[in-house]
User: Fold these one by one.
Assistant:
Number 1:
Amino acid sequence: MLEKFFLHQKQYSLKIRGESLASRIEALNELEKAIEAHRSEIIDALKKDFQKPEAETLLSEIYPVLKEIKFTKKHLAQWTKAKKVHTPLTLFGSKATSSPRLAACVC
């Protein structure tokens, strides 16, 4: 069961690498809206399951995630930008760039 879950996650990871910057930003916006829309439900669930106080939930669960979403949206364009990389001498006269969308491997 766990192996099947990880395989699904790996396939999804490979799929989203080809998505545009705009679609990635939109997905982050949707996540942000969902967290805000269900804030009270998240607080209630953590109180019920773990007896976690509202203030602690806000400070340790909700606010950090919202801050990370904001940070990611701000830097995503830079992170996904192709970068010039060293070209071996055997390929003298050519240029090479890295493609961050394909560089990360979820193995």
Number 2:
Amino acid sequence: MKKLLFALSLSLLTSSAFAADTIVAEAAPVFSWTGGYVGLQAGYAWGDGRVDQIGGPGFVDTDPDGFLGGVYAGYNYQMSNNIVIGAELDVVYANVDGSGQVFAAPGFPILGASVTEELNWSGAARLRLGYAADRFLPYIAGGVAFGDIDINNNNGPGSFGDTFTGWTIGAGLDYAMTDNLLLRAEYRYTDFGSKSFGAPSDSSVDLKTNEVRLGIAYKF
């Protein structure tokens, strides 16, 4: 009789544990990253800027830095092997600038001459590749970058600027805090390329930036 009661008790416990595991499994489905999203982001940028000539012999290294913020939107598709591919667009307002002493040649500054380089806004169109670990999505991303860059002569007339086109690459981590709320941390490197300006500035300008960004998005 004791053996029978023990066997029945063990059977009940096993059945209960199996049922509990089944309920938990049914209540916690694996998160899917497939879908569109739109979000807000903010961050900090620092970079290497260079202007050559400046209306005559000379050059200046500006090393701009500052804060930026804006919006982003994209679409992800998660494959059966948990690889996630996607495309994304973003645009940010930038308060990124830096000033430098103008040199006629290395070691020979032009007294009283300085120039400021400003990044006013930037944007990018990128492709993304990641691996889904349930609600975590580490990824890499790269594509085309755009930026509005101005050069200001701090000692007189001669300001000029234009929209530059270059490339960007980076890596980040998305986390699905809920089924619809996505958090992000990202680093990216951007080379806005070089552009030559004719008279009256007769200058060549380039800018490269490093950026760290945080974002929050709504997934549809």
Number 3:
Amino acid sequence: MNRVGVLNISGGSPKQRGYDRGRLARAGIARSWAVYDRLFTTLAAQHRRTIDVPALAERSAEATRAWAPELVEEMEGVAEGAEVPFWTIAALNARTEILAEAGAPRTGECSTVVRTGTPATGGQCWDWHEELADAWHLQTVTGGAHGFAGITEHGILAKIGVNDAGVGVLFNILGHQDDGVGGVPVHLVARRVLGEAGSFEHALALLAHAPVSASTVLTVVTADRAASVELSPAGSAVVHPDAEGWLVCTNHFLAPGLAAGELRGRREPETYDRHRVLSRRVLGRAAPAGPGELAELLTAHGDEDGAQVCCHAPDGGEPGSRWATLATVALDVAGRRLAVHKGGPCSAGPATWTSVTATTR
């Protein structure tokens, strides 16, 4: 079975945890950087833009240093452990912001469903460039305020996960007309929530004050509560579950105030199709009873309103145009764990899931 690897990262200081990550993921970081370097250059050229990646990475790091200096220390440790320049690691962690500067489209990316209850449960498809299909891993991280487990890309501190306090984070990219570089990278915002938040309220407070310069929606899930926090350079907004307790997120703003600056949905309106199909599917439905039912819920290949929730890359195509569902993630906040299937939900089976659990030590 083609399973993804797990990195167990520890250390008594941010620098030590970073060094541990860099040492363990050295080869993967080199492969990931080669792909991102090509993506940044190719997509900028396609949109007739010139970008200075080292300078953009340093700007992102400076914004992070003002908000959470320990995250910069951790990235410095990654660079030392991986034996690469610091700006390379800063660029990987700011890849969303740098791609926004390059004018990159994001067709086909990420669909999330969550059902509140006893306990709350849910998960998502993670869609990204097919060229990066082997550029990610599962992880457990200990040594800070809260240990956490999750999924991330080589060299990036965090993405999707759950911590030992039972705070889970799911992750969808949005697009706003003001997106770019200059704020704290959204992946580092997720890292701070997973490493620090001891409660639902704490997580929302951290997100409300995150000075981002690119847009995302982080869905916070605890055993009894859930909310999607939409972040953008124009501000933030909290989206609550519907009357049945469901949250459905794709890649457009749901909060009216932020939707006024919507960019993603105007460029790639298929996000509305995915949201419509999933909202219809969950209507009157109980929470998915395990990863298998979640995978069934997320499997859609365009037969309903053209919605490709489960995304498959086409043959051929230029770098940056080949999208695929790289992972399917089922979140179990009560158990402090995630189950992850490598690939789209349509190929998941009872034996294809790998679980990681958050621990304090």
Number 4:
Amino acid sequence: MRNDVRENRERTGLSQAALGEALGVSRQTVNSIETGKYDPSLPLAIAIARHFHTTVEEIFHVD
């Protein structure tokens, strides 16, 4: 699954560690999501979307 987490994170000036802290996950988890190695659970995907004031569909894309 493709995602725009990195683009949103960089646009808002956050580090992976800062985003992870805000979401209650590790920097490594954020990195794995950004690189497509890990698909987040639905609650985490919703938390990411809410953090960036958008929808899950705007961040995560099924190819």
